[in-house]
Design a protein that fits this description.
Layout lengths: L4 H13 L20 H5 L15 E7 L5 E7 L1 H5 L3 E6 H4 L28 E2 L5 E7 L2 H8 L3 E6 L6 H5 L13 E8 H4 L5 H6 L3 E12 L8 E5 L5 E5 L4 H12 L6 E4 L15 H13 L3 E4 L2 H7 L3 E12 L5 E13 L9 H4 L13 E9 L13 H19 L3 H8 L8 E2 L5 E2 L4 H12 L1 H14 L3 E11 L7 H6 L8 E7 L5 E5 L8 H13 L6 E4 L17 H28 L6 E4 L2 E4 L9 E2 H10 L13 E5 L8 E11 L5 E11 L6 H20 L31 E4 L17 H18 L13 H13 L34
Helix pairs in contact: 13-22, 18-19, 19-20, 21-22
Amino acid sequence: MTVSPDAVEDMIEERVDVDRTDEATGQEVGRDRRRKEDQHLITGRSKFTDNIVLPGMLYVSMVRSPYAHARITNIDTAAAKESPGVAAVLTGEDVKDIQGSLPNAWPVTPDQVAPPHPAIAVDHVAFSGEIVAAVIARSPSAARDAAELVDVDYEELEPVVDLKAASADEILAHPDLGTNQSALWIFDSAEAGTGDNVEDAFCDAEVVVEREFRQQRLIPAFMEPRSVVVDPTGEQFVMWSATQVPHILRLMLALTLDVPESKLRVIAPDVGGGFGGKLQVTPEEVITFLAARHLGKPCKWTETRSESLLSAHHGRDQWQRIAVAAKKDGTVTGLKVHLTANMGAYLGLVTSGVPILGAFMYNSIYKFPAYRFECQNVFTNMTWTDAYRGAGRPEAAFAIERIMDELAIELDRDPMELREQNWIKHEEFPFTTVCGLEYDSGNYEAATARAMELFGYDELRAEQARRRESGDRVQLGLGISTFTEMCGLAPSRVLGSLSYGAGGWEHASIRMLPSGKVECITGSSPHGQGHVTAWSQIVADELGVPFEDVEVLHGDTQISHKGLDTYGSRSLVVGGQAVIKAAKKVIEKARPLAAHVLEANVDDLEFSKGKFTVKGAGDDQEGLALTSLALAVFAAHDLPDGMEPSLDAEATFDPENFSFPHGTHLCAMEIDTETGESTMRSYVCVDDVGNVVNPMIVDGQVHGGLVQGISQALWEEAVYDAQGTLVTGSFVDYTLPTSADTINFVTDRTVTPSTTNDLGAKGVGEAGTIASTPAVVNAVLDAVRQFGVEDIHMPCTPERVWRAIQDGRAGGKTSTPQAAQPHFEEGAPNSDEPSTATTDGSGR
């Protein structure tokens, strides 16, 4: 693409002017503010964990198992200990009595089966990449060199690497457990009292469509590798970690290692992305802590990229069996879902609960009267899975949007018309779903109408018909995704009912400084989302202070002493509301002092744009600025009797409900039927994320999410061979998109404010990822259905698309066989033949 000098000048002017947008309104919320965070990032003044250097610091290198499943018969560390610069070598035997077991905070059923999860394996390894020893030395190179000298003898065992085969328990990932099946979690609308009996719905159905879909294994692939530094030399242990969850990490380390929580400080400095991949208590954090405590010196561990791809937790990896019952006129009457979910070798922090999060979203925006969901969690000898952007919701959106297309094909209906027939109408909100959730607001009609207008839906359908009629080599497909999701991972009571080990509240505090500046301390911990900018805008509006005068502090448990951190699109709708509550408390604390100074009754005061004024005193009164009261409180020379000399306030917010953003995403794909090459023609999305604090940040979140979801559809897949070796262990094989692989997206918004928070916001961090994957896959399939193709496993690489077309033309099976009459008996293992994972040579 060529950009002219004039265009560059126009872009520069646009950026310069961006902060003045909407200045006439006097409101910060709703303005395109450039991010405060970016200045130090783009000028090289960032401080990531690996940038931290402490006097006398030692460096840790991990020795990892090359086998997916084996017994450790002997470890010889003598040569490593004699290597130059080595301070110590730790094995599982050395720390078995003090390392504890890594926590799982979400036991989804009372009878959940789980193996102990040691930071360093003692006598058994369960996945390739599991740590068997740690070398601590005076330099990173010395630690790496010595790690090569650790001699480990293994007795190799047969690994379990096929998810369907694992369900049969013929080969065990953990022989001591006696089973690979960790937990069976069931929701039934009739049993819960939220809907009708699903078996009756299917018995009475005029049409039943059943399919099996595959959610491939993905790797979060965050930009900054994981890193941890531990300093044991002061009164506290201080840990710096590239984590999304400093508060949770502190608590879990204290419980796991029997360290007083007051003696442990955790700091998340600049964190370069996470996507759920840093929502974890990692073996490396525990090991680095143990090494620092053992040696009494600061220790650092930073992973290589290959370590990250191999051993940082993965995401998705499910087989989804889904069946929909309907009338001949297209009205849906029942929904059944059975998941087989790959836990990998162990349960991480929320591994077992991630598939369950999607249970409440398979019904999506549709008025299903009956529903049953079953999830069988299964162990294999692979890296364990856990949260990955969307966490359960993308899987649900994919399955329901795919099956709605399949139902439309069965009924010979336009897929958009069929969706509209079954979705919740805007006048029906608030609406209680078949899962018992109350959707508080939405307007699916408005978002869809705008998206179809921008997309040119009817015109593209006409072009598609012309191409099919002419037998064009390049066929056009249109894909639809009309989605909703539950955001603001909270209400604590709901999480408690699901056996989650923590609450969903968030904390914030406001400090009014004597100089008139403001400090906002938040329990949310950002890693690229723009918290500092958005929180500054919120505080500026609430307190009437300049945007530039607000400092946002976060990510340090010594400064932000309470919080539940960042994940699940919860920061704004939960953490932002806590900020608002704290700001309102500041104003109420200042009100008696303002009345005292103005010699007015407290009830006669009004607060607006940073000033207290007296009702009825006229528009020309000067008023009393909140910032001047901050100095008066500091001096404390003339305070009302009984008033403490502080305007500072803190607040905790625990919402009563989730928030429910939604949107309509439309994708046009062109498929070369002779090569299988897929080219994105256009992509339009219209999202409703409620009221927007900073449109620029929202646009960035949507664009990033779209690329991540599209990448699952077209490019990304973590592949293991039959021995349990990760064969996509570098970016040569694990394909991530670049800007050259994507197009310009057309984005827009409709607004129906949420009723769960004062901002009216709904959350946006995961929307693009959740909605885009089914839109793209539906478009690819729409282009090649005429050849007999019914499904293609993701990613839809050129080879897979080509093979599907060849199989379809030959009248055989497509590249992804659909399930034949899947069964949904409680606890029944999946008996379908296992598929063999292959690495595509085309497009990878």
